[in-house]
Amino acid sequence: MDQTNALALTGLPSLVALLIVLIAALIAAASYWRRHRPSEQLPMRQQAQREQQSAKSKIPDIIYRDTPTVRFVDSQRVDRLRKVARLQVGSHLDVLETRVGITPRFRITLKGVDQRADLETAHIGVDFGGAEVSCGPLVHEVAYNEFILPRVSRDEPRSAVFHYYENGCSLDFMRIKLRHVDAQSGTAEIDVMQVSGHWPAT
Does residue 74 lie within any of the structural domains? Predict the structure, then answer.
């Protein structure tokens, strides 16, 4: 009886080691299989890759970019993003990066431009994560989140598109204004600013 227990105890560490090796091998095999298996969603991935490539061919010129983050203390933070982009008619700018297949977090689409002696305007569409955005009185809203935006005047808030949202311990603000239009080339320079602030709940 004692010899049987002694034999079982001496074989136990090697049994545990064998069990650990088997589990590790199973995990490695499952991980490899998951990464290298043919996906059922392969046609969707190929479509997404095609969309990304076509979007890359229409990337607007970013003229100015500024993205400072200001930290007050560990629990308080303000992110500010500012871009000036030159867009062609029919192209769009993703101000905030968006994965393919989901609603754009912040996208501006240039639908048209108009340049007269006394007035430069751009027809833009704004996707802001599904939220409705507002505009100043000099801006003409033609449809849901679609605007005829005049070139910015001295009274900037009246000629801009904006969004403001406060929720207890956070604040989001966005502003779009038109800097310049070239009707011959079908381009417009659009100035975008987005600010996001967070602080601890009281």
Answer: yes
Please, where are the H alpha helices in the chain?
A: 2-36, 42-57
Residues 144-176 pLDDT 10s: 999 999 998 888 889 999 998 888 788 889 999
Residue by residue, DSSP assigns 156-199 as: GGGG-EEEEEEETTEEEEEEEEEEEEETTTTEEEEEEEEEEEE-
Domain count, the chain: 1
Query: Could you read off the pLDDT of 78-109 as tens digits, one per residue?
Result: 788 898 999 999 999 888 887 777 878 889 99
Task: Name the pTM for this structure.
Answer: 0.62
- Cβ(121)–Cβ(178) below 8 Å: yes
Is residue 31 in some structural domain?
no
